[in-house]
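User:
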Amino acid sequence: MIKTNPLHAALIAALLGSVALVGCKKNEESTNNNAAPAATTPAEPAPAPMTGAPPPMAEAAAVAVSAVTVGKTAAADKSVAPAALFAPKDDVIVSVRTDAAANNVTVGAKLTFQDGQVAGEQNATLNASGAETTNITFKNANGWPAGKYRAEVMVDGKAAGTPQEFEVK
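Assistant: Predicted structure:
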């Protein structure tokens, strides 16, 4: 049996750590072996530590979707009466109620048919300093195929609000 002392154990641990670091090193060499070696540049100094208040959060973080409604017509105040049943020639309005303090935030809506096929996808730009309703209208000149649909809302590409389901008969 081999006797080890604390010095031997420390050396073995250091050796294993070195091997692990070398094995994890990214291969930064060019795959083109005929290329000239890259010129070395001096390392840039580390950025100065931040002082004062942190930068403001992104505008999208301030947007909260409070309601999603699917309907056929919008009133003057942009409110939409909910509807679950549509005719093939009806417009489909996805109404998104937000509480926001944001500029140039993308609010999108996507309609998905029962087989998973995207039936429509549109975006609008939200510029608001408080509660706001954004309506996105989908039209189909050929008529919507009969079946079940799902309306999903995204704010800056991220799912928001509760998806709504409706049917075309």
